[in-house]
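One thing: could you explain this record?
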Amino acid sequence: MKFICPLIVVNNMEISKNFYEKVLDQKVQYDFGENISFEGGFAIHLKSHFSNLISINKDDIIQKSNNSELYFEEEDLDSFLQKLKGMDSIEYVHGLKEQPWGQRVIRLYDPDMHIVEVGEPMESVVKRLLSEGLSIEETSKRTLMPEEFVSQFL
């Protein structure tokens, strides 16, 4: 068995497609109308079509359940944050926050209230902490990354 991708249900394909393309710079791999796969390895599916496929009432598909998220990484997180400042339609779960392991992240909702997390890659976190003067050992302890991983960024 092979896992293929997560699929989230959306109310409006064009609005959601536009969000993922324009806000998160995702590229469409396949567009089947009611189902779009992105090169990043996830798909969106139109709620009315999806509810018919699984034989449930579309009102039984709950928005803003806050029980999952799509996770993205952005090397230039500061530029991404600037990009978001110009978008009034974005609803945030929270602003920029540093996780206990040192990674900076922001969480927001997509147009259908699915949580989207955008964080800096751990390589960037390690480089930042090392440049701030932390030792290999301190950086390893803070980020939970092995010392071998940390030492390659000196």
In short: The first strand starts at residue 7 and ends at 10. The mean pLDDT is 96. Helices lie at 13-23, 47-53, 77-85, 122-131, 136-143, 147-151. The CA atoms of residues 48 and 54 lie 10 Å apart.
